[in-house]
Amino acid sequence: MKNLIEQFIYFMEVERGVSDNTIQSYRRDIVKFSKYLDRIKKEVSSVKRDTIVDYLMFLKDQGLSPSSIARNLAALKTFWKFLVSERFVRGNAAAIVETPKTWKTIPEVLNAAEVEKLLDTPPDRGWMGIRDRAILELMYATGLRVSEVTNLKMSDINDVAGFVKCYGKGGKERIVPYGSAAKRSMSRYMERSRKKLVKKTPDDHLFLSRLGKKISRQSLWKIIKKYASLAGIKKHITPHMLRHSFATHLLEGGAELRGVQEMLGHSDISTTQIYTHINKERLRKVHEKFHPRA
Predict the structure, then answer these.
(1) Which CATH superfamily is domain 2-103 in?
(2) What distance in Å separates the CA atoms of residue 258 and residue 266, rounded to the nearest whole number?
(3) d(Cα 131, Cα 207) in Å, to the nearest integer?
């Protein structure tokens, strides 16, 4: 199984040109499945649909979120397509395994007041506070994914016009505008913080660590979690929460679904449509709480 995984990773990396983040995700998910097969003493050649369904239920019992389970299934489907195409196995055991509709859960978001508290929490002094405020402002202003923010280059920012260019899933380029609040924070970061972070061998990435290198996804996640805690936000914070809030608040404000889809970089509008349900769900909860006959 280990050899098959390495051949699959090589195929995805070299022949399909898949991004490093996706490669690492595939590797983690398939190695996890390999360990499950070892646990139940089953060879990959003998895996049937029931084996994969049982594995998904095992992941659910382990406490994985529906989105994480769906991601694991997507990795297995891609892996099995490879195994069949290379004739390592005869049948595609994963092809007929469907993702339950219940996995399309409504993401939790911050309300406008919580966003204000979060964005106002980083101190407006010192290179770290100024940098962190710029990061949070830009994430909320654009809805960029964490990985997209860490990969931004200086050349991707037009701070005069207020546009950022980023490369999403599959290397697809998109242009997203951002407003005056983010522009102020970005300008302050460029003038006061970034110059101090650049070392002798300059790194062209927009957001830098104290070592002068590209800030990592893990560091960005810690920044979000840190300031959410300092702001007294009790919700379960996730790296995508500012992205979810960006989309929800735009739609609540009357933005067109197609425009939000384009800014988020969704290839399928059904992915964006989930945000239209968030406000309805919030209204339903308000009705249940306050209506005398709810």
Answers:
(1) Tyrosine recombinase, N-terminal domain (1.10.150.130)
(2) 10
(3) 8
pLDDT computed for residue 92 by the predictor: 87
CATH class for the domain made up of 112-288: mainly alpha
3-state SS assignment for residue 175: strand
- Listed in sequence order, the DSSP H helices in the chain are 2-10, 20-40, 49-61, 66-85, 112-120, 126-142, 146-150, 180-188, 195-197, 217-230, 241-252, 257-264, 269-290
Tokens of 201: 């061998």
**Span 146-170, pLDDT tens digits:** 999 999 999 999 988 999 999 988 8
* 258: amino acid identity, one letter: R
CA distance 80 to 88: 9
Please report the DSSP string for 249-278 in residue order.
HHHHTT--HHHHHHHHT-SSHHHHHHHHHH
Residues with active-site annotation: 145, 169, 240, 243, 266, 275
Write down how long the chain is. 294
Q: Sign of the C-alpha dihedral, residues 244, 249, 252, 257?
A: negative
Q: Which residues contact 45 (CB under 8 A, 6 or more apart)?
A: 88, 89
Longest dimension (CA), the chain: 68
Angle at 27 between CA 25 and CA 32, to 5 degrees: 100
Provide the mean pLDDT of the chain: 88
Query: Rounded distance, CA 213 to CA 215, Å?
Result: 6
Instruction: List where CATH 1.10.443.10 sits in the chain.
Output: 112-288
